[in-house]
Design goal:
By secondary structure, the chain is an alpha/beta fold. Helix content is about 55%, strand content about 10%. It is built from 17 helices and 15 strands. A hairpin with a 2-residue loop joins strand 10 and strand 11. Helix 1 packs across helix 10.
Length: about 500
Amino acid sequence: MSYYQLEPSKVPLPLVGQPLYLRGNVPGIMMAAVDEVVSNTKAPFDLALMSALTAGSIALQGVVDVQSPTGFTTPVSIMTFALAESGERKTAIEKHFLSGLRSFQREKKAQYRQDMVEWELDHEAWSDSLKGKKKELLRQGAGREEILEVLKSMSAEKPKKPKSPTFLYDDTTIEALLQGMHDGSKNAALVSSEGGTILNGHAFRNLPALNNLWSGSDCSVERRTTESIEIIDGRLTISVSVQPGIMQDFSERKGKAARDIGMWARALIFTPVSTQGARFEYGVKSSQVEMARFNRRVTELFRLVEEDKNQNGLARHVITFDEELKPYWLGICNTIEQEINLGGRFEYMKDHASKLADNIARVAALISCVEHGVEEPIRKEALQAAVSICMYCSDNFSRLFNSVPQPIRDAEELCLWLNRFSLRGIRYMKKNRIMQYGPSCVRKKSRLDAALDWLVLSRKIAIGRYGKTGYVDIVPWNPTELYRMAQEVSFGY
């Protein structure tokens, strides 16, 4: 079968299960480190996997972009959220997987502080020299043009302020994050193992900016009183672990806005099963070999950013897929598109579906680069693992945001309630009786009418009038029984 003839049904996209099965599918640096950390901390596998992908994203987002077999190029930055209760050892997991990157940042900050001391001295000396030169020119009665020429010449000698090496931001405002990316590293990460400080703080007040950075688009913020911020070719990784209650509160306050603007469509949602109550100790000494190897690997990848700098900025590698994966990739894309249709998996998650293939490509690139480097194409095992991970996150997205529209949810609940009467041999029922005694969700006229309209469209009921009374026919496919209708409606059903 050729590339363009592959049928969507040939790709088992909707059938993928939990990422726990990845252990045997992707041997190598990342999975070995995940298994070791899970063994040592007894934390959920999902949390460790998410942190490993986050570390890879931070290390690689300034180094590579990924190009799909259809030719679309995208960043490898990911946005992840984990819903986990207190005590799941989120902080311990993050400490393990980000220790190499945090150590690298500490080294750079130490050097930055020394550079700042030298710059302040040089800047003070230059400033004094500039003031002295201006006084001398004024004393000599130099003209305006001569003074400007000298000032321009001295301005070129002004010491350049060192750029901040900060790329990991834990608890910050979006304004401070954008300012830091403008002044320093354009490749940044917003990370928190206690996401309440992020979701309840200021970091998510400018959602369009976060979306632009995730997409690799240029980001600009105009200001009235201070210098405007402009970030060209920036990259941002977001990783937040949060308690379900805090997430629910955020969803109630800003969830609809975040969904409408597309932030949640870009996110990978992890909902790990708690291991509390089963974290028994057996006196086995913990090994750190695989974790140390993983941290060395991500630090090596991160250092490529500095090595690849040129006069135009960063020269990122573009990682591609193995040629043999073109049919498989096309099948994935077509399956996603097919599942958007009526009755499909993504019927009520079109926003999520539009970013799903993008996320699969990003995760596949992260796994591939950590395992095989930035010069090797993405292989099938990395793509299959990415599909498993992203489809697991897709299931979580569906459960978290309850993607089915309200009228359909109301209609389903009402249908179950009506079926109880159908089983008792009752066929006709007054609409006002439903509003009075039916499920609580349809005791408002607007919601009842919307639910009934949906059931009529689904051919599960029919609506009519008997005299001045509106009624519902629970068995509309059978011939109408006028005597029975008169009896049941008259007697109050």
